[in-house]
Structure formats: structure tokens, C-alpha cells
From TrEMBL:
PANTHER family in UniProt: 4-CARBOXYMUCONOLACTONE DECARBOXYLASE FAMILY PROTEIN (AFU_ORTHOLOGUE AFUA_6G11590) (PTHR34846), BLL7811 PROTEIN (PTHR34846:SF7)
Name this protein carries in UniProt: Carboxymuconolactone decarboxylase family protein
Annotated Carboxymuconolactone decarboxylase-like domain residues: 22-95
Organism: Cryptosporangium japonicum
Stored Pfam families: CMD (PF02627)
């Protein structure tokens, strides 16, 4: 399977570089990196983005995340392996990803639950991560970016 368009060349490549820069904001926050990766995985699963699911699952594994937790991300509500803070972040990621499914977008209840676990700067990081991963997912799905060949840290030095 080949991508319809090269994500790293032409106008799209310029956009990707800027999106990558914007995505660094969440990673520089005090939100645990493991929480951010779990959110990226969950949003990518919802959006059907194989490339991002592959990437963030491999990065999480390389960072020490357990197979049990990774295998249960899609079923986090029924799983006992996530903290209350992680569960609040996953719920925010889901509602922020599925905004078209609800006339009100992210519910007040979900927001209040996240606010119990994260301060304003951290909430800003969570929202920016949700926006960025959804943009990445859409790019990859639209161009049909193939999944499976990503190596952990592959884009650490940029592209």
C-alpha cells in the first residue's frame, strides 16, 4: 500500500512541520508523557488512523508502557489498570475527538472531571494534544499513510 501523497514534501510537508512544532507544546507540559501517549492512541483508534496508532503504541512501548495497558486503551472504561487522572484524560480525548457525535461537544461533566485532576496549564496541554492528534489523524487517513513500519523515535530529529 502506498500513500496517496507524500506527507513530507510539497505544501503538505510545510504544514506538517508547523503541526509537529505545535504538537510539542503538550509534551513540554507537566502532564505525564504516558498519559499523553494513551490519549494519542485512543484518539487514533477512534479516527481509524493506523499510522498514528502504530507510532504511538510503539513509542509507548519504548517508553516502558505495559502490554496490558496498551491492549486495554480501547476498553479503558472497563479496565482497572488506569488511574483516575488517566481515565479523565482518556474521556476528554474521546469527547474531544467525537465532537460531531454530541451537539454540545465536550460535556461539562467530562470537563469538570478533567479539571479535578489537572490545573489550567495542564488542561491547555490536554486540549492542544487532542487538537494536534486529530489533525495528524486526519492527514494520515486522507492520504492513506501506511502503518506498520514506524520505528520508535523515528521523527525525534525532525524530518
Amino acid at each position: 500500500m502506498d500513500a496517496r501523497l507524500n506527507l513530507f514534501e510539497n505544501t503538505l510537508g510545510k504544514f506538517m512541520k508547523r503541526l509537529v512544532s505545535a504538537g510539542l507544546v503538550a509534551g513540554a507540559s507537566s502532564v505525564p508523557a504516558s498519559t499523553l501517549l494513551l490519549m494519542e492512541i485512543r484518539a487514533s483508534q477512534i479516527n481509524g488512523c493506523g499510522f498514528c496508532t502504530d507510532m504511538h503504541t510503539k513509542d509507548a512501548t519504548a517508553a516502558g508502557e505495559t502490554p496490558v495497558r496498551l491492549n486495554l486503551v480501547a476498553a479503558w472504561r472497563e479496565a482497572t489498570v488506569f488511574t483516575d487522572a488517566e481515565r479523565a484524560a482518556l474521556e476528554l480525548a474521546e469527547e474531544g475527538t467525537r465532537i460531531a457525535d454530541s451537539a454540545g461537544g465536550v460535556s461539562d461533566e467530562v470537563w469538570a472531571n478533567a479539571a479535578k485532576h489537572y490545573d489550567e496549564d495542564q488542561l491547555g496541554a490536554l486540549v492542544s494534544l487532542i487538537a494536534a492528534i486529530n489533525a495528524f489523524n486526519r492527514l494520515n487517513v486522507i492520504v492513506r499513510q501506511p502503518a506498520g513500519s514506524y520505528q520508535p523515535g523515528q521523527f525525534a530529529a525532525g524530518y
